[in-house]
């Protein structure tokens, strides 16, 4: 960008231009949403199949576009983990295409009658699923989100406006071209899946304000700072979670081998996902029998353990936990461990430090598990299972666009069903209200 | 209020005080919500029964408090309709007490398993209803909303913060005292139903900002200007509708007598409710046969008819409809009538002028009704029935806190079930994720 262009994009004129540009996207999305709302399942699935085919057929274009993004990122001295997220290769393109096909194979939620009943006056009432409308997806470096989010929104009959991270612009645009090819080959409007044609950050601000009422919901996909900005600025509903500060509480009596397997899996299977455990709470009654073996199992799995006094005493490799370690989303091979005085204290700790995402209890005490289920206010609660099951696929819901911790509408995994709304259809034979 | 006090309440100091006051309400509500979330149904119903008893026992107090509000309103020269909404009498108090008992008789939605399924790995997943948490209700002159909203929120296990209109302060506070008496007599925290102790408008602003994350949803109950303010300022989800611009479309072939009965009922049964019809659309194919009889029936029922050229020609008493009459919520004995060229034009008109609340089609053509149901994007659609059925009671959902036109979570009548959220309970036997 030349200095002249940079001045321009900072000017009011450019802001107005971006607002107008984005409003245009919103209006076209709204028109496309009207078409999608009455598009039969078979037509949507035909488009999805054609998208997958286009992703495979155009894989050379995708790789070339990705190379431009990778080179730019390398020039900027971007770190390795970021480059790995950004990178496309033939295997990842194939996985993306298969992901789109998997979404095609899901049941179409639109038109499903969720509930129906008759009234004494003969009215028959149905509550039926409808698309949500227009969804805005704001994401970061992973270009595959373009295909995942586009396909999932289409399956639920929604138009979508995608705003990829500026680092993955070329890759995302090349993927987007395949999606549009799929839509158009099935006779659906290309505007059903649009990509923001500018990398200016002001475009995101416009989306968060709802593009003149055309966007129904915003889904941020990315790190904490992105989600935080979206949650604080958005004037439309947001499906997201800010953090996954997941707890495991081991309550007496508990099978030690089961506890070890669950704790190590919950923390270490993948440390960077939102369902990874961040804090281990151990009942005082198990301090003698379970604390040391659990800590040792974690340490031997390569996990750094930060603990309270009792945990420090269990193994010399344990580091002291500072106050900030409880309630921290490490997203790494680090766990905070604390001995708590029973169920009440565990629930109190989770209430104080949790993020309402996912928590697990490991115990043979059914009553304690029931109490934990009733009183812990998180989207997902597990008994004797790993927190890493917090995932739409693992729930059997198929692909998900993310996990939400809000209390409205979508909570837990946000799959195709959560991307719908509903309306009432009432059939009468001339009824008037007395 | 003295000039000195008026200066004070306008000062920054007072604003800070109101913010702190309101935050305290939010925090106490959150604590109460934690108790209510695990309160058994029987205990909540016991509290509701005690509330009804207290309303009856304290009816003299309620009437005396109401007299103060009425006198103040009369001194301010308030209009008759407003005074009628504000007024309490023994019959209205009895109706309020019975309303609370009716809510007690509803099924408790909390704890209901909405869906459950097993995974191949043996995990058993349940989606179970939970309370939403803390609900803020902002209302205007009708003091009975205090009891209705308080009881409905309690039934669904939610804490509620009520902010009555300043004109009904004394009445609402007296009713609120009965609700607290009922709560406490059942051993529930009085903070489960709180009333804002100041009439300062700044308190509403604090609620709309969510009281430090303690309020989960805001429900405005009142006229357009209140709802508009709430929808534009709220930083938390809002369950509401701004307008009920309900349409009736009569499509050929249609039984004339049925159409007359439905149209007159939809417009004239009660003209001031949100489900009252505001615009009548008539298919060109029925212009010769149905237009004149429908217009005559409306005129004879005492309705002012504003019409297009064809409608004007049908009866000399018809007044010309100006552009603004279509899409206007008259909330009065006035209707706008227009002849439209078939289903497509009717849907286009509703799309352009409607408010996504409630629309009806009157026709014997099942395919046209199905098309209308599929394509009109409103919360409630009716075939051969009056729009005045847009009501939680008429839907068989029991009492409602209002009608929502949002696309998220609550849509259509907002009854006890819509005042809930859900969480997942997952039961395993040691499963870890591969």
TrEMBL record, chains A, B:
SUPFAM superfamilies: ALDH-like (SSF53720). Residues 28-298 form the Aldehyde dehydrogenase domain. InterPro entries: Ald_DH/histidinol_DH, Ald_DH_C, Ald_DH_N, Aldehyde_DH_dom, G-glutamylP_reductase_CS, Glu-5-SA_DH, GPR_dom. It is an enzyme of class 1 (oxidoreductase). Its EC number is 1.2.1.41. Pfam families: Aldedh. Keywords: Amino-acid biosynthesis, Cytoplasm, NADP, Oxidoreductase, Proline biosynthesis. GO terms for biological process: L-proline biosynthetic process. One of its GO terms (molecular function) is glutamate-5-semialdehyde dehydrogenase activity. GO terms for cellular component: cytoplasm. Catalyzes the NADPH-dependent reduction of L-glutamate 5-phosphate into L-glutamate 5-semialdehyde and phosphate. The product spontaneously undergoes cyclization to form 1-pyrroline-5-carboxylate. Belongs to the gamma-glutamyl phosphate reductase family. HAMAP family: ProA. This is Gamma-glutamyl phosphate reductase.
């Amino acid at each position: 960008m030349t200095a002249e262009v940079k001045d321009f994009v900072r000017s009011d004129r450019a802001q107005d231009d971006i607002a107008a540009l984005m409003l245009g996207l919103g209006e076209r999305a709204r028109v496309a949403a009207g078409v999608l709302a009455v598009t039969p399942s078979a037509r949507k699935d035909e488009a999805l199949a054609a998208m997958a085919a286009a992703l495979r057929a155009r894989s050379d274009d995708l790789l070339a576009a990705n190379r431009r993004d990778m080179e730019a990122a390398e020039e900027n001295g971007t770190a390795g983990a970021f480059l790995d997220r950004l990178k496309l290769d033939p295997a990842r393109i194939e996985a993306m295409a298969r992901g789109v096909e998997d979404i095609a194979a899901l049941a179409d939620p639109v038109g499903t009658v969720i509930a129906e009943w008759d009234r004494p006056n003969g009215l028959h009432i149905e509550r039926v699923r409808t698309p949500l409308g227009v969804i805005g997806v704001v994401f970061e470096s992973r270009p595959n989100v373009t295909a995942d989010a586009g396909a999932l929104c289409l399956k639920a009959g929604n138009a979508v406006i995608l705003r990829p991270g500026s680092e993955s612009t070329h890759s995302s645009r090349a993927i987007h071209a395949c999606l549009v090819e799929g839509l158009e080959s099935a006779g659906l409007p290309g505007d059903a899946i649009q990509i923001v044609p500018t990398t200016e950050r002001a475009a995101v601000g416009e989306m968060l304000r709802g593009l003149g009422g055309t966007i129904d919901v915003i889904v941020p996909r990315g790190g904490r700072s992105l989600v935080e900005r979206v949650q604080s600025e958005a004037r439309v509903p947001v499906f997201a979670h800010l953090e996954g500060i997941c707890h495991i509480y081991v309550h007496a009596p508990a099978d030690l081998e089961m506890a070890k397997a669950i704790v190590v899996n919950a923390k270490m299977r993948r440390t960077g996902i939102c369902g990874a455990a961040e804090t281990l709470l151990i009942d005082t009654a198990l301090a003698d029998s379970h604390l040391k073996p659990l800590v040792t199992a974690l340490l031997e799995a390569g996990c750094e353990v930060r603990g309270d006094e009792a945990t420090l005493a269990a193994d010399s490799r344990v580091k002291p936990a500072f106050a900030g370690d409880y309630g921290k989303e490490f997203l790494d091979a680090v766990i905070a461990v604390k001995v708590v005085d029973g169920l009440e204290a565990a629930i109190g700790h989770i209430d104080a430090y949790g993020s309402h995402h996912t928590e697990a209890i490991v115990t043979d005490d059914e009553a304690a598990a029931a109490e934990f289920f009733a009183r812990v206010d998180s989207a997902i609660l597990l008994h004797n299972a790993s927190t890493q099951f917090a995932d739409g696929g693992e729930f059997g819901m198929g692909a998900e666009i993310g996990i939400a911790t809000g209390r409205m509408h979508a909570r837990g995994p946000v799959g195709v069903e959560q991307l719908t709304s509903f309306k009432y259809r009432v059939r009468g034979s001339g009824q008037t209200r007395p």
